[in-house]
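Appendix C reproduces, verbatim, an entry submitted by the partner laboratory led by Prof. M.T., so that reviewers can inspect both the input and the predicted structure.
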Amino acid sequence: MSHKKTQTSEQAEPLVEEEQKKCQCDEKCECEEEQACKCEHCENSAQQPDLAQEYLNMARIIQADFDNYRKRTNESIKQAKIDGKVEAIEVILPCLDVFKKAKQMITDQASLKGVEMVENEIINSLKALGVKKIDTIGKPFDPKYHHALSTMEDKTKPDGEVLDEYQAGYIFNDKVIKYSQVIVNKLKEEKNE
């Protein structure tokens, strides 16, 4: 039996690293003189600037990806705020319809004035948030803003004009969040026989 010493994998690794560091060019390596070597294994290789450029390009890509992520996140936050406002507004709007009905039932002027003050305060708060009431009475019927509950005939008004408003409609950020429920003038066509 021969008792030769075998190299372990741990001992072999430093040897591999040392060989990789050695210059493998056919020409005389001038690495010691800090000139660019033509071999790819040498630390002074002319390919090092290419590696630096590659890292710089990767850094730019990562920066661009992060900028895009930041923009998407900011847009998502902005949209979430708008969605939250819309949800709150949609909960408050039916209260205004209740105020309208309550005012019709109140006979005491002092109580009526108090209810109107509260109603006006809610309307002003909604205006501050950017909510606008849709104009209805006397305006032409527009299905983008109005929902017709019924029709009536009034020969003194033009055909298709809104005669009355059952429930008010509202717009927020140029988007209808509640359609106006209206009664529309519908003139009957006269038949010529």
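DSSP finds three helices and six strands in the chain. Additional entries are available on request from the coordinating office.
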